[in-house]
Amino acid sequence: MASKEDKIIDGKWIAADIRKEIADDVKKLNVTPGLATVLVGNRTDSATYVRMKHKACAEVGIQSIHKELPETIAQSELIQHIDELNSNPQVHGILIQLPLPSHIDEEAVLSRVSLNKDVDGFHPLNIGHLALKDRTPLFVPCTPQGVMELLKRCNVSLQGKHAVVLGRSNIVGLPVSLLLLAENATVTICHSRTQDIASVIRQADVLVAAVGRAEMVKGDWIKEGAVVIDVGMNSKDDKNEKKGYKLVGDVDYDACYGNASMITPVPGGVGPMTIAMLLRNCVNAAILQQDQ
Fold it and tell me: What pLDDT digit, counting tens, does each position of 239-283 carry?
């Protein structure tokens, strides 16, 4: 499902279709799915992301519950709040907005979320099942899941293809590598210590760029016919923009467009899919808990 411009993978359009599917699924349930968000501190970007998630929930009929906690909160108190949400039957999914303040042990907090409410997919058991062959996690992290859904809906065959992942973060790079491997792609991960990154990326049939460096991937790095999925979201100074900057990906879009057979724009590519997958995970969590 690329857009009418043929090679542009329109994440907004695909995510809108998925949201309609989710809204229909919600109407069929005997329970209203509930998503709880936990925001620690007053980071503007994190607050914006949480508002976007609440708006998306309302559009498909998911109830939102929000906890906004001070940046100075003790870890033990934060865990108490998570325990309350774990025991609340109206909450089917819990999302801890990252990053957390430096004095909080992120792993300890994420591990505290009940496994069957881990709609972000970051519980160690969910990640562990993702990493093991022939195991199925209850939930898959939303951005990697969104990347795979884009590829699926655009009919991109992965079997036997060389997929290169640029970036090795716990949030995107590592889980998306495992998902690509599960689809029988041959997967290479590039990172800050990779020698001659450009020559490795030139071998990619499918490139997933998730490194957080504005327009790092140049046009001559892309093999003709490659599929390019740009997960990056970076600000770049631009005096022609009202805000003084524009949003760009990890890929130099204009330079890479020519060689790519399909490519995601930034914004409007992977971003909308992340929220759509969160909604899907929340509905699946409600179904799972209803059946227990």
Answer: 888 888 889 999 999 999 999 999 999 999 999 999 999 999 999
Do the strands 245-248 and 234-237 form a parallel or antiparallel pair, or are they unpaired?
antiparallel
* Coil, strand or helix at 47: helix
Three-class SS state of 53: helix
Q: Which amino acid is at 240?
A: N
- Respond yes or no: is residue 292 known to be catalytic: no
282 touches 35 (CB < 8 A): yes
Predicted model pTM: 0.94
Q: Is 252 a catalytic residue?
A: no
**Distance from first CA to last CA of the chain, Å, rounded?**
36
Catalytic-residue membership of 7 = no
| 34 token code pair | 């509930």
3-state helix, strand, coil in the chain (%, to 5): 40, 15, 40
Secondary structure (DSSP) of 150-180: HHHHTT---TT-EEEEE---TTTHHHHHHHH
Give the ranges where the chain is alpha helix by DSSP (H).
Answer: 11-28, 44-60, 75-87, 106-112, 124-131, 142-153, 173-182, 197-201, 253-257, 271-291
Catalytic residue among 120, 205, 230, 250: 120
Catalytic pick from 10, 25, 63, 97? 97
